[in-house]
Amino acid sequence: MSQHIPYSRRNQEPLYIGFDKPRRVNALGIAGFVLSILGVLTFGLLSPIGLLFSLLGMVRSPRGFAATGTLLGLLGTSFWALLIYAVVHADHSRVMQAELTRGRQATVQQIDEVNKQINEFIMQNGGELPDEIEGNRLAVQNQDAWGQELQYQPTKQGFIILSAGPDKKFQTRDDVSKGFTYEVKKSDRQYLIEL
User: Fold this and answer.
1) Is 98 within a domain?
2) Are the CB atoms for 78 and 116 separated by under 8 Å?
3) Are the beta carbons of 68 and 47 closer than 8 angstroms?
4) Do residues 12 and 44 share a domain?
5) Torsion over CA: 124, 125, 129, 133 (sign)
6) Which residue range is the domain that position 136 belongs to?
7) What is the pLDDT of residue 16?
8) pLDDT band at residue 25 under the 50/70/90 scheme
9) CATH number of the domain within which 170 lies
10) Which segments of the chain does DSSP mark as H helices, in order?
């Protein structure tokens, strides 16, 4: 059986007489490549490990297996990263939606409080609705779930109580409002405020 017989010279790379120089093997690159291939077969579960080994193998030569392992590892790892992002984003959206729903419910309760105050005002003032200034004086004593003062707007049939919503800007899509119709029955001195 043939063997490589190195002929060494001082402070120089050995010469191999009669044979080709043995090829260098990049064990980390090969390991990364194999793990990345297995990562593809396991739907990306081993891809992060394969990517790590392949990246470590990129600092040594030859880099062929390491480069291919890096590419395959990136694909499998990206799949899992996107999957994790989608799950976290969906959970975050669900939590935000639940907070928004709770905020709207709390704001509607505050709007109902303003309605009671306006009802008392009507009773004390002979069945007259408050004008815009007086109504807003009552409304601003209450805040919505986002810490903003409520707003009163008189209408032909009654009034509307408004909240600017989570963005704290009026006349946008997330405003919370509730309208009330107002009817006076003078005969029996009842003042009704209805939805």
Assistant:
1) no
2) no
3) no
4) yes
5) negative
6) 103-194
7) 57
8) confident
9) 3.30.700.10
10) 27-41, 47-57, 64-124, 132-139
- Tens of pLDDT along 181-192? 877 655 444 444
Same structural domain, 143 and 71: no
Tokens at residue 188, please?
A: 């029996």
Residue 187 is assigned to a structural domain of this protein? yes
Residue 76: DSSP 8-state? H
Same domain for 78 and 11: yes
Token pair belonging to 54: 């392949």
96 in a structural domain: no
CA atoms of 55 and 71, how far apart (whole Å): 10
Residue 84 amino acid letter: I
- The pLDDT value given to residue 195: 40
Question: Which DSSP string do the residues of 14-70 spell out, in sequence order?
Answer: PEESSSPPPPP--HHHHHHHHHHHHHHHTTTSSHHHHHHHHHHHTTSS--HHHHHHH
Query: What's the pTM?
Result: 0.56
What does the alpha-carbon distance between residue 108 and residue 154 come to, in Å, rounded to a whole number? 18
Tokens of 180: 């009330």
For the residues 44-66, what does the mean pLDDT come to? Answer: 89
